[in-house]
Specification:
alpha/beta; 19 helices
Length: 411
Amino acid sequence: MFAYVARQAIYDGEKNVFAYELLFRDGKSNCFPDISPDEATSAMLADSHLSIGVENISFNKPSFINFHQDTILYRFPSTLDPLNVVIEIVETVDVDGDFIKACEHIKNMGYKLALDDYDFSPRWESLLPLVRYIKIEAELIDMNNAHVVRKIEELKRSGKILIAEKVETLDEFEVFKLAGFDFFQGYFLSKPEVVQHKNVEVAASSVIELVAISSAKEFDFDKTAEVCEKDVGLTYKLMRFINNPLFNKRQTINSLHHALRYLGSVELKKFIALLAIANLKGEKPADLVVSSLVRAHFCKLMGVAMDLKDNPPSSYILGLFSHMDALMDMHMPDIMRTLPFSEDVKLALCEIHTDSPLALQLRICLAFERADWALIHELGIKADIKESQLFEMYYESVQWANDMKSSLLEG
């Protein structure tokens, strides 16, 4: 039995990832809506947790997991760690006596409860004392509505932790933050908050030079060594990365020239792109870089499945640089004018809805991040990749990015 999982980030007021909302589904439920969401959640959650572990999907951050009526009442999976998991109660439940008792039992087991899609209705009053987190959709947070403002103040006074959902713009984020919301869920981090050019320091210019070299059809090892030798920090990162046991299981690499020849041109192009992202992220949250790693590996696997054979590895570079607008606080077309990528990569990054295979890969990445099951099914058909294979690839990519995080962002 195959377990389907997607994750959506929940950010704090400093735009760092606080937690992930995990969405579990039965594979058939993407095609046959008559399958109960309770059945899919309980069965698939148990299988996924026991075989993979939610901590690997959420990078060891807290996991918010949706639970429906019967799953709470009859099939609650107590194998989940209450220190790492938040039980998210969906808005479709019936808040009756039995349900309240079940929630009390779960809370007494040490789990934290979250109420999803709170709409300020009186029907939730009996459940509120048991809930620690309350999630409210952005369109309902009307700060000009006296009733809404009063309820938000009451919830804050009672110690509730408020999460604003579907926050799509920087303006909304700032308003809700000022209103007292603690966490935020939405896609504002994937776009620049302020469109401005950064002052490019010497280290950053070296990185761009490396990217230019690695984008050429004929890889110049000597020129790469020259660029790295000018930047001690960059050389250190490259050596640290190459010595990672995920890639190098046979021997210790002790010199830069040895490292370059040992890896070869194709792998070096991938590694340099990774190092470029890690060095250019500046003060941006590390989780944005990790998301870039997931996309890069996922696109690479999709490229192989779609039989896209190219050098440099366009699918990999596509995914890796897909967050560059957020990392650099610039519009993507402006960034692409400064980088020597192929026209196919540039077009896919700037015009995601084109019909190219690369743009299709990027749309599949976004569909997974937004847990859009119907779109994943549709795009999988267009890519001629089995849906179960896509989910396996995504699992592998999340694990790979998690494993590589320490090599890229630490030390």
